[in-house]
Amino acid sequence: MISLNNVFFTRQDGGTKRQIINDLSLTILPAAHIALLGDSGSGKTTLLNLLAGLLSPDAGTITVNQQKISELTASELALYRRKIGIIFQHYQLLSPLNVKDNMCFQARLNGLSPSDDEVNTMAKKLGLENKLTAMPEQLSGGEQQRVGIGRALLNKPKLLLADEPTGNLDAARSLDIVTLLKSLCEEEQIILIMVTHSQQLANQFTTQLFLKDGQING
Ligand SMILES: Nc1ncnc2c1ncn2[C@@H]1O[C@H](COP(=O)(O)OP(=O)(O)OP(=O)(O)O)[C@@H](O)[C@H]1O
């Protein structure tokens, strides 16, 4: 479960301060799947970064699975970040590593050692069973994003944050990837929060939240 209580976050915009997140309170239940929508610049990525512990609120508290992340020290935050899943629009695979090692990368960083069985099962679910020894540059965009999903899931997160994960893919492939991502999160009871500009993709989610003026309109 996630709760945000009276969270404020400002950015310096030229000479003035701009309130990006403005007294936001929100509860997200375990295993919820949420599409986060909002105009460009409304603060969607900022909100994901606050949940990822990459930014700290100016005021208010953020609690993720009973851990008050807004009060953690830098080293505690580094440990917290290792445990959550993040999927980026630009995949961010490591080019010298093959698919298998990319998929295992975050889990290994977090002290887990996925077995060959686990990796093969995940690769199969992602349709990557014949690509485990391929290098990232030999993959299509959709395949690279599936490696990104595998990398996040093999780390067994309780929370997965996805920032426009299909922003680089065409509509049909985006729908396939989001459907797959959602069903894998359902299977593993993972909270999924996905930023998207696409209403069609958001419609795959039972909960849609709209960020506007630093506030959530659910
Ligand atoms: N590092 C930064 N320094 C200053 N301002 C920033 C910084 N990063 C983002 N901003 C500003 O904060 C606001 C919110 O940005 P954010 O990236 O969270 O929006 P978004 O809703 O994710 O936008 P988009 O849909 O275009 O990706 C924007 O006005 C942006 O210009």
From TrEMBL:
The ABC transporter domain, residue ranges: 2-218
MF terms in GO: ATP binding
Entry keyword Nucleotide-binding: yes
Keywords from the named record: ATP-binding, Nucleotide-binding
InterPro entries for the chain: AAA+_ATPase (IPR003593), ABC_transporter-like_ATP-bd (IPR003439), ABC_transporter-like_CS (IPR017871), ABC_transpr_LolD-like (IPR015854), P-loop_NTPase (IPR027417)
Keyword Lipid metabolism among record annotations: no
Cited Gene3D superfamilies: P-loop containing nucleotide triphosphate hydrolases (3.40.50.300)
Family matches, as PROSITE patterns: ABC_TRANSPORTER_1, ABC_TRANSPORTER_2
Protein name listed in UniProt: ATP-binding cassette domain-containing protein
Organism for this UniProt entry: Pseudoalteromonas marina
Phylogenetic lineage: Bacteria, Pseudomonadati, Pseudomonadota, Gammaproteobacteria, Alteromonadales
